[in-house]
Write a structure and sequence with these properties.
single chain; alpha+beta; TATA-Binding Protein; 5-stranded antiparallel beta sheet
C-alpha cells in the first residue's frame, strides 16, 4: 500500500513545485513589461545605443548643456543659467531616449534639447 501512495505523493510535490516556479517566472516577465518611460521620452528608429548616445551628446553640447557620462547608456546633462541650474539624466535604451529630470527641472526646461535631438535624428534619417 505504501508503495502505491509514494508515487502519488512524490508526483503531487513535484507538480506543486513546478507550478510554483512557473508562476514565479511569469510574474518576473510581467514586472519587465511594466517598465514605463517618462512623458518626455523620445522614440526613435535607431536601436544602436552607442550611436544614439553620440547623437544625444552632440545635441546637448551644441545647445549649451554640459555632459557628464554616467553609465554605458546614460548621461547627465546640466545647464547653468543665472541662478537656476537645470539638470536631467538622459537614458538611452533600444531606440528610446528618456529624460529623468532632477528637482527644479521640468519638461519645459529641456524642450530645446529634445527638439534639437529630434532635428538631428530626422537629418540622419534623411541622409544628411
Amino acid at each position: 500500500m505504501k508503495n502505491k501512495i509514494l508515487p502519488y505523493v512524490a508526483g503531487s510535490i513535484l507538480f506543486t513545485f513546478l507550478t510554483g516556479c512557473a508562476q514565479h517566472s511569469s510574474s518576473l516577465h510581467s514586472e519587465e513589461e511594466r517598465v514605463t518611460h517618462s512623458k518626455a521620452a523620445l522614440y526613435t528608429e535607431i536601436h544602436n545605443n552607442k550611436h544614439l548616445k553620440k547623437i544625444v551628446i552632440k545635441a546637448a553640447k551644441e545647445k549649451g548643456w554640459r555632459i557628464t557620462k554616467f553609465t554605458e547608456n546614460s548621461v547627465i546633462a546640466e545647464k547653468f543659467n543665472e541662478q537656476n541650474p537645470k539638470a536631467t539624466t538622459i537614458k538611452i535604451e533600444d531606440g528610446i531616449v528618456d529624460f529623468d529630470n532632477m528637482p527644479g527641472t521640468d519638461d519645459s526646461d529641456i524642450v530645446d534639447l529634445k527638439e534639437y535631438i529630434q532635428d538631428l535624428l530626422k537629418a540622419e534619417k534623411e541622409g544628411y
